[in-house]
TrEMBL record, chain A:
Keywords: ATP synthesis, CF(1), Hydrogen ion transport, Ion transport, Membrane, Mitochondrion, Mitochondrion inner membrane, Signal, Transit peptide, Transport. It is a peripheral membrane protein. It is found in: Membrane; Mitochondrion inner membrane. One of its GO terms (biological process) is ATP biosynthetic process. Mitochondrial membrane ATP synthase (F(1)F(0) ATP synthase or Complex V) produces ATP from ADP in the presence of a proton gradient across the membrane which is generated by electron transport complexes of the respiratory chain. F-type ATPases consist of two structural domains, F(1) - containing the extramembraneous catalytic core, and F(0) - containing the membrane proton channel, linked together by a central stalk and a peripheral stalk. During catalysis, ATP synthesis in the catalytic domain of F(1) is coupled via a rotary mechanism of the central stalk subunits to proton translocation. The keyword Disulfide bond does not apply. This is ATP synthase subunit gamma, mitochondrial. Residues 1-16 form the signal peptide. Belongs to the ATPase gamma chain family.
Automatic annotation (TrEMBL), chain B:
Coiled coil: none annotated. This is ATP synthase subunit epsilon, mitochondrial. InterPro entries: ATP_synth_F1_esu_mt (IPR006721), ATP_synth_F1_esu_sf_mt (IPR036742). It comes from the Eukaryota. SUPFAM superfamilies: Epsilon subunit of mitochondrial F1F0-ATP synthase. Belongs to the eukaryotic ATPase epsilon family.
Length: 416, 81
């Protein structure tokens, strides 16, 4: 007996396929003999199918012989029913466990208790005796995980190809602001009364934490300004939907301007200068802090603050440092030092903004790539686990049913 | 015309020239972009159409006042889309 069971556990999946439902139906203890006969036929069908698929013929034939013996006494029928009942309950417990795993619902002890009372286990969607239901749930879940995985993979590919396009542009644009920094230096701690914190974020999500980092840095700058003196004030200018969504929660009073849809067309210098003009026209400032994610590699981004001073601030500070050398030059025409500095400041703003927007969109693509890569990996892990549990429960079901059959047959044998 | 007079004339023209666009309300950036648009217009094909995309802009901006957004304004090279 035990050897047969061992062989049966290893039966390939084909046996499980077709006749499971007919096996499951009508196995209650109160079955009429007529139904019993019907059931016996379906058993035979099932088993013959099994024998053909079985390699170890001897074991298969033995089982078949057991089953082909007809039912004899009412006592046997009763025993048969008891045996199958207990076996089914075993299967139900497995199903409950699986169900708890899938929906992360709780307390299998409670469900099994109610199972014995009501006939339908709590949390079980299927009626009494239908054993495939929980497997169906897992299969649906597997299907949805698979399709999500497909989507994330596609998103990763799209981000990768976009990144390639924008990365070259970004690297080229670095040449625009580097001379400015060489000439003017970067003055993040510049003494300015009115500050703009220009937060650059993305319009779309699913790109890791890059938007949160810009927002976090912007808020820190805001606090820093507030702490530096009571007459100092800062306001936000936000580029990108996601940064706005985070900032408007607790600092909407400080938002002065919000720009979106900047990435609908490829980012170019015309766009950056139009935006810079718009900002300079709308908001008064002494200094602008641009907060963005500088692109380092596909997996690393540096949250960066670039500072641009207004022409007046620039002129006030120009006596010291390299700008002081401007005095030793002669200006063409009527260009005064102030006019030159104004032009310079405007151009610097546009260049730095251009670079910052490109860097940020580059970082966005990189972050999206790695985020989507991770989620595709997670999906395949999940799929693996689900497949394992699915197969395991299916096998358990098969085993249960085989035990049912065999014990029934053994009971017949014993009574004959 | 003597040399100093000529220099003076040049200086006067230059004096007038520099702030023209500024007087007209243009910022340096608007001036730069207008100039570069003209340069792009002088290009021959296929470079002309290649560089045309560099003038295309599209963005939407909203002014906020004391936590209340005003109506968004769309600035686009092809607003009909």
């Amino acid at each position: 007996m035990s050897t047969i069971v061992a062989v049966m556990v290893a039966i390939p999946a084909c046996l499980a396929g077709t006749n499971k439902e007919s096996l499951g139906d009508g196995v209650g203890g109160t079955n009429s003999v007529k139904r019993r006969g019907l059931r016996d036929r379906s058993l035979k069908r099932n088993l013959t199918g099994g024998v053909y698929n079985l390699d170890s013929e001897e074991a298969g034939k033995t089982t078949a012989n057991f089953l082909l013996t007809p039912l004899r006494s009412p006592l046997t029928i009763a025993r048969y029913g008891m045996a199958s009942g207990s076996a089914r309950r075993g299967g139900a417990r497995l199903a409950n466990l699986l169900h708890g795993y899938v929906n992360s619902s709780s307390s299998s002890s409670a469900t099994s208790a109610s199972w014995s009372q009501t006939g339908i286990a709590a949390g079980e969607l299927a009626p009494f005796g239908a054993r495939m239901a929980s497997n169906q749930i897992v299969r649906n879940r597997m299907k949805s995980v698979k399709s999500i995985q497909k989507i994330t993979k596609a998103m990763k590919m799209v981000a990768a190809s976009k990144l390639r396009g924008v990365q070259g542009k970004t690297e080229d644009s670095r040449g625009l602001w580097q001379p400015f920094t060489a000439l003017l230096g970067d003055a993040p701690g510049a003494d300015a009364k009115k500050k703009i914190i220009l937060t650059i974020s993305s319009d779309k999500g699913l790109c890791g934490g890059i938007n949160s980092t810009s927002v976090k840095f912007s808020k820190a700058l805001m606090r820093l300004t507030a702490a530096s003196g009571s007459d100092n004030q800062a306001s936000y200018v936000v580029i990108g939907e996601k940064g706005k969504a985070q900032l408007q929660r607790d600092s909407r009073k400080h938002i002065k301007m919000f720009v979106t849809e900047t990435q609908k067309l490829p980012i170019n210098f015309s766009l950056a200068s139009a935006l810079a003009d718009e900002i300079m026209k709308t908001v008064e400032f002494d200094a602008i802090h641009l907060v963005y994610n500088k692109f380092q590699s596909v997996v690393s981004f540096l949250p960066t603050v670039a500072t641009i001073l207004s022409p007046e601030t620039l002129a006030a500070g120009s006596e010291v440092g390299k700008l002081g050398d401007l005095d030793s030059y002669e200006f063409e025409g009527a260009e005064t030092k102030a006019a030159v500095l104004q032009n310079l400041s405007e151009f610097q703003f546009a260049s730095v903004l251009y670079n910052a927007m490109l860097e940020n969109s580059c970082s966005e693509m990189g972050a999206r790539m790695s985020a989507m890569d991770n989620s595709a990996k997670n999906a395949s892990d999940m799929l693996e686990k689900l497949t394992l549990s699915y197969n395991r429960s299916r096998q358990a079901q098969i085993t249960t049913e085989l035990i049912e059959i065999i014990s029934g047959a053994a009971a017949l044998e014993a009574s004959s | 015309m003597s040399a100093p007079q000529g220099a003076q004339a040049v200086a006067q023209v230059a004096k007038g020239a520099a702030p023209y666009w500024r007087n007209a309300g243009m910022t340096y950036l608007a001036y730069v972009n207008a100039c570069s648009a003209h340069v792009r217009n002088c290009l021959k094909e296929p470079f002309k159409s290649q560089s045309a995309s560099r003038e295309q802009i599209h963005y939407k901006f909203t002014e906020w006042d004391n936590g209340v957004p005003s109506k968004p304004v769309l600035r686009s090279s092809n607003p009909e889309e």
